[in-house]
């Protein structure tokens, strides 16, 4: 399967991609732990079936020092002992924020309370933005039929130039 469209080869698409990346850069530079960022991005990407983003966040997590065991267990985080309570709260928010159409209430009060317990306001701002941005990125990847498998960590740093 070939990608349907190269967003970066188009003037408008390139502007959109660069601005999207710049929002992601603000999140990346926040106090939200890098490992949490990658786990949340990976989980939302798994739910959305975006192979391109699963490839990116699996490899970026590994490059950031995340263990293969934890990366492999993200899809089954509720049934794994390797995630902290804070990470579990972030993963629950990622799932509920990704599956908005599946839940009549969106993000539950219980999940929100768990997030508030473990993260400060700046981290919450980054976490909420992260869930929104990874879902947008997943839609780009799936709609454009971008395939996973060939990503190299650090590839997107060129978008800031």
Determine the CATH superfamily: AhpD-like
Q: Tell me how many strands there are.
A: 0
Q: What is the annotated CATH architecture?
A: Up-down Bundle
**N to C succession of SSEs:** HHHHHHH
Query: What is the distance, rounded to the nearest whole angstrom, between the alpha carbons of the first and last residues?
Result: 30 Å
How big is the Rg?
15 Å
Number of helices: 7
The proportion of residues in beta strands is under 5%
Number of domains: 1
Structural class: mainly alpha
For the sheet with most strands, the description reads: none
From the structure above, extract its key features.
161 residues, 61% helix, mainly alpha, single chain, AhpD-like
Summarize the structure in words.
Residues 27-96 form the Carboxymuconolactone decarboxylase-like domain. This is Carboxymuconolactone decarboxylase family protein. GO terms for molecular function: peroxiredoxin activity. The chain is mostly helical and 161 residues long. Helices cover 61% and strands 0% of the residues. The chain has a single domain (11-144), classed as AhpD-like, CATH 1.20.1290.10. Helix 2 packs parallel to helix 7.
């Amino acid at each position: 399967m070939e990608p349907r469209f190269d967003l970066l080869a188009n003037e408008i698409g390139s502007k959109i991609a660069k601005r999207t990346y710049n929002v992601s850069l603000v999140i990346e530079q926040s106090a939200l732990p890098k490992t949490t960022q990658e786990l949340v991005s990976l989980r939302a990407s798994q739910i959305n079936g975006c192979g391109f983003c699963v490839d990116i966040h699996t490899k970026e997590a590994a490059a950031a020092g995340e263990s293969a065991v934890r990366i492999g267990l993200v899809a089954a985080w509720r049934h794994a002992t390797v995630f902290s309570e804070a990470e579990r709260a972030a993963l629950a928010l990622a799932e509920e924020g990704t599956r908005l159409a599946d839940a009549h209430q969106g993000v539950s009060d219980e999940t929100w309370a768990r997030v508030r317990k473990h993260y400060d306001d700046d981290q919450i701002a980054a976490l909420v933005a992260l869930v929104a941005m990874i879902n947008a990125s997943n839609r780009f990847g799936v709609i454009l039929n971008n395939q996973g498998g060939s990503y190299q960590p650090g590839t997107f740093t060129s978008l800031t130039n």
